[in-house]
Amino acid sequence: MTEKTLLQDLNARGLIAQMTSEEELEKHLAEGSVTLYCGFDPTADSLHIGSLVPLLALKRFQQAGHKPLALVGGATGLIGDPSFKAQERKLNDDQTVGNWVEKLKAQVSQFVDFDAAENPAEVVNNLDWTKDMDILTFLRDVGKHFSVNQMIAKESVKQRIDREGEGISFTEFTYMILQSYDFQQLNKSHNCTLQIGGSDQWGNITGGTELTRRMNGNKAYGLTLPLITKSDGTKFGKTESGTIWLSANKTSPYAFYQFWLQTADADVYRFLKYFTFLSIEEIERIEAEDAAAQGRPQAQGILAEEVTRLVHGEAGLTAAKRITDALFSGDLSDLSANDLEQLAQDGMPSSSFEEMMAADNTVFEQPLTQILSQADMGNGKQIKDALQRNAVLVNGEGLGMDANMNAAEIFSQANAMHGKFFMVKVGKKKHHLFYY
Predict the structure, then answer these.
(1) Angle at which helices 299-324 and 52-63 pack, to 10 degrees?
(2) Which of 224, 209, 220 is nearest to 35 (CA)?
(3) Fewest C-beta atoms under 10 Å: which of 14, 32, 71, 318?
(4) 237-242 CB contacts, 8 Å cutoff, 24+ apart
(5) What is the DSSP string of 69-97?
(6) DSSP 199-239
């Protein structure tokens, strides 16, 4: 892939929201290997799938011969980015942010190649060049280059100022200066000439290109990626059970795989362009075949496989598919005790009766609706509705409404698979493994 083709490919995928000096940037990328960076602030102990587009963009640039820097914001993470946030972020302590930085370093390392012969990736931390800077130096040498008038006019800040009763603190107001200083520092130390990020970062990125020009006398460029939206207006990356994380400890490979399998037809071909490395031609072929075929589209399965493999590797994908096959098309009676143990290890939501009884020895005196609700299988009304539809299955057998008050009998060890396991299914998608 040539450098010009890279920008054309990004455009074809709908992955470019804004660019500074488009023609100049295209020429700059064509001149040879360029160093670029993208920042990831540690606001939790894992990135979520909202970070996938910029992570994969770094990978796309590296595959085209450029050198990616993944910046983990040990400093900016202590401040909090106000961009398009409704209210002030909660500030976290140094130790918490420091721990999150280390976890994020490991995560971003999955997506770029640190051993490439000519353009190896690097992880950098902006705490390294800010921790020893005193306030007077910061104000005199960096702050003097920023016009408060222009900062207030930035859309991301303007929205906070205009929102009645909210406003913005001086702490968050300075975030733009800190991020701009990152670009200037990386330009000086790594000859970094391009910053990429989400479209909500446009004001911060252009601040960095301007500061780099003023302090270093160098030309720098910015490129933003679209913030992902769903066609039905609901928030991308959120489900009933919460955020979809990149960490297998927070979102299992199985749950991750299921999230992508459930992508709406109206979104799936767009998401194939955003989140996979399949060519545009291959994606168009998949869409044409789905349009011509009768029945279930193949696109969701391809998307789920490609993205799960990217994030969790072949082992994670295999585990996710094994659980899916067992639950949705397999016969539970054919599962061995080892298979069921493996389901729990692979990330199937599960609960130990021993732990439940240790916490409350009257647990089996509770209605079934309450037990299943505590296992995040729905609220009481949803579970009652499912019982009325005979849509609550325990070890493959449907339950009626009379089962609601009979939890002790339902979960008797005499009824358990292999004397130990109960697979409970509510509706079509929610599963939970209870065990003794």
Answers:
(1) 110
(2) 220
(3) 32
(4) 237/48, 237/49, 237/50, 241/376
(5) EEEE-TTHHHH---TT-SSPPPP--HHHH
(6) GGGHHHHHHHHHHHHHHH----EEEEEPPP--TTSPPTTEE
Find out whether 36 and 76 touch, Cβ atoms under 8 Å.
Answer: no
CA atoms of 139 and 145, how far apart (whole Å): 9
Q: What is the pLDDT of residues 90-144, one digit of tens each?
A: 666 778 777 777 888 888 888 999 999 899 999 998 888 998 889 999 999 999 9
**Half-sphere exposure of residue 382: CA atoms within 13 angstroms, side-chain side:** 13
Closest among 5, 107, 3 to 55, alpha carbons compared: 107
CA distance 433 to 417: 11
Which residue's entry shows tokens 């330009």? 187
Note whether 121 and 58 are within 8 A (CB). yes
Amino acid at 174: T
| pLDDT tens track for 156-214 | 777 777 776 667 888 888 888 999 999 999 999 999 999 999 998 998 999 999 999 99
CA distance 232 to 394: 33
Report yes or no: 250 and 104 within 8 Å, Cβ to Cβ: no
Spatial separation of the C-alpha atoms in residues 96 and 43, rounded to whole Å? 10
Q: Which residues of 315-332 are buried (b: 16+ CB within 10 A; e: fewer)?
A: ebbebbbbbbebbeeeeb
HSE-CB for 39 with a 13 A CA cutoff = 33
What's the rounded Cα separation, in Å, for the pair 257 and 195? 31
Q: Do the beta carbons of residue 35 and residue 192 sit within 8 Å?
A: yes
Closest by CA position to 72, among listed 182, 169, 170, 149: 182
DSSP assignment letter at 260: H
Q: Which helix (H) or strand (E) holds 398?
A: strand 397-398
Please say whether the beta carbons of 217 and 245 come within 8 A: no
How many Cα atoms are found within 13 Å in the side-chain-facing hemisphere of 12? 15
